Amino acid sequence: MQYKSTRGDVLLMNSAKAIVKGLASDGGLFVPATMPHVTMDFIESLIPLCYEERACKVLELFLTDYTAAELSDCVSKAYDRENFDAAKRAPLARFGDMSVLELWHGPTSAFKDMALQLLPQLMVTALKKLGEKATILILVATSGDTGKAALEGFCDVEQTKIMVFYPENGVSKIQQAQMLTQEGKNVDVTAIRGNFDDAQRGVKAIFSDTTLGAELAQRDVKLSSANSINWGRLVPQIVYYFSAYADLLDEGCITHGEGIDFTVPTGNFGDILAGYYAKEMGLPIHKLICASNSNNVLTDFLRTGVYDCKRDFVKTISPSMDILISSNLERLLYHVTNDAEKVASWMEKLQKAGRYDIGATLLKTIQETFWADWANNIETEKMIEKAYEEQHYVPDTHTAVAWKVANAYRAATGDTHHMVIVSTASPYKFSKSVLDALHVDVSGLDAFAMLEKLEQINPVATPKGLASLQSKPVLHHAACDYERMGDCVLSFASGKDS
């Protein structure tokens, strides 16, 4: 399989090259030149397989330049029992005609582990296949979860360095502690004075800075990304949509070929885009429901066809979704138009004017697959309370946004397809917000005492990785304005403190 840019760069490359490069030379994102298609026989063949085996069968359709042995080795290292505390890796919690797909049983208790435990393995294998001798510097902008998951995945991985930028006051205390205590000889964590969009803007600017690129080349360093702009980060996420469907078939919840819905808490549009790829491949997905918090730029876009990020940025209790520029939407626009020139024009308008309009005809096409709604903080808290009271289940704040929107979708449409709510994080990562929603007094408690408090009422124990944070020293102290991110990258690449 070959890969091309969403913005028209005609140079095709295989998956190994696309994964190492991360971002296309014209600033676009890599997408598959053709879409693989599967039958129901393929889907049903997944039922008796473990998650790792399912992953290999899906991934080999896209990563055709990797051998079966290479993929098997990558997958087995990524999803081993030491990294994940659930036998099924991505289990379903069943609540009648609705299920919760738990993607947070990895080492950092967030769905990003499903991809970021695998991406380093794919990256190292690609470097060997290509004979690449340079050090690959992974740049990450994070709204909370990606940073720690990427740090954990790339920690002390040969021939790589990783540098994570996060908004200084835009992540939870637990998320911050996870990043600042990260060990490893090849890692750096730097706070940005600004929000996630500032961090993301800074990373993209670094990738397009030819002068900086030349200076890094003199140091035998090349840039790549672990954000979902990297195809190697996105493609593993397709797997759990197939895995969920196979499990529902196995449990008798659905029948052969029956359509199902997925509601996905969405910020950068990568997780839900993976569902779109699964649907385009032939997985019987009826509807993909995009759930936003008060930063509801995607809801407005999917309702009106106008993407407008010129609005107030809102800090919410679901901070991983506090995003106004959703990078992966570019991939969707390319697939539904097959017009790189048009996509490039929209991205230029977004950069210069902060908005673009795709028109009513194209919007109608997108709405055949997608539906969207949003939830504010109060609605999110009420949903946490409702899930606990009715199901004795404690969702995190992002999952609660999706749950509320799933209910709203059903009420608005009367759709009775089996609904899968994609759960993206453990509630322990956002324990204060969850406890507040459950009317538990947390006055005088620090973040770690809140973990213990939540464990008293949650049937699920505190993940080991979170429970151990309190005893770990803070190792990273750097902060900068996003305009100085390039300087920090150069310093880190040169072996200096950022």
Give a description of the structure.
The mean pLDDT is 95. The chain has helices spanning 15-21, 40-45, 51-59, 68-78, 113-116, 119-130, 145-154, 173-180, 196-208, 210-218, 231-250, 270-281, 297-304, 329-337, 340-353, 360-367, 377-391, 397-413, 431-437, 447-455, 464-467, 485-493, and strands spanning 2-5, 13-14, 30-32, 92-95, 98-102, 135-141, 160-167, 187-192, 221-225, 260-265, 285-292, 306-308, 355-357, 370-374, 418-423, 478-480. With 498 residues, it is an alpha/beta fold. The two termini are 39 Å apart. The protein has a domain at 92-105 and 234-459: Rossmann fold (3-Layer(aba) Sandwich). Helix 4 (68-78) packs antiparallel against helix 6 (119-130), helix 17 (377-391) crosses helix 18 and helix 17 (377-391) packs across helix 19.
